[in-house]
Amino acid sequence: MVKVACIQMDVEHCNKKTNIERALARADRALTMGAEIIVFPEVFSTGFCYEQMDKLAEKPPYPTIGQLVNFSQKNNCILIGSIVEELDAETKPYANLGFCIENGIIRGTYRKIHPFGEEKSHFTPGDSIHPIKLENICIGLEICYEIRFPEVARKLVLQGADLLVTIAQFPDPRGNHWRILGPARAVENQIPHVMCNRTGKDPTKSFPGSSMIIDALGNTLADSGRDECIIMADIDLSLAKELSSKIPVLDDRREDLYSN
User: Fold this and answer.
1) Is cis: bond before 61, omega within 30 of 0?
2) Of the candidates 207, 211, 210, 223, which has an alpha carbon nearest to the alpha carbon of residue 173?
3) CN hydrolase domain: which residues (predicted)?
4) Which class would CATH give 2-252?
């Protein structure tokens, strides 16, 4: 059993300092509620601040991640989210860099492989799908638009993910898609799914929140509305193994018939 929290927060456009302070304050509160894994929305520290990316994007050693490393080390917790990364590239010089930090150690990163809309003009997509291995759990991290690609979640599960985590800035008016796709990814892969979306508004869009924590059967363990909040649930990781023995979906695949 693991206790997971999603920090559903508004993201103040381009205001890194304020966003990080608010995120860590909420993470601190989640810890007092017993959280072991704390999940932030996609690019929670800046939003998609295209007009100031040259100032706000980060290179190693990633100052924002450094602050989270310190927080994680102090509190012996796991933190998951993403930031805007600066790349050494003449065209599309940025990336959406997902990360997973455990007890003050960066256990792994993942670059979003499916940029959406305007992101395609700024972000170089990642080129690999891989889960992030922690001491006692393997995290399958995907970012926003990727919830629409069942291949991503399936590959993460086949490579050993125990918990699927989707971090997002999934906008209105497509909140109903988000609420359908999230449980579907859990059910079809027999894996618990943490869906952490932002809320509020940026200069061009509004966001429905609707963060959810789903078990491997597709049951909703925690659900939010549109307001800023912390949702939390205990996830029984053994349920997935029990389920797969009764309904062996992964074993019954016919991969020879699926490729084009």
Assistant:
1) yes
2) 207
3) 2-237
4) alpha beta
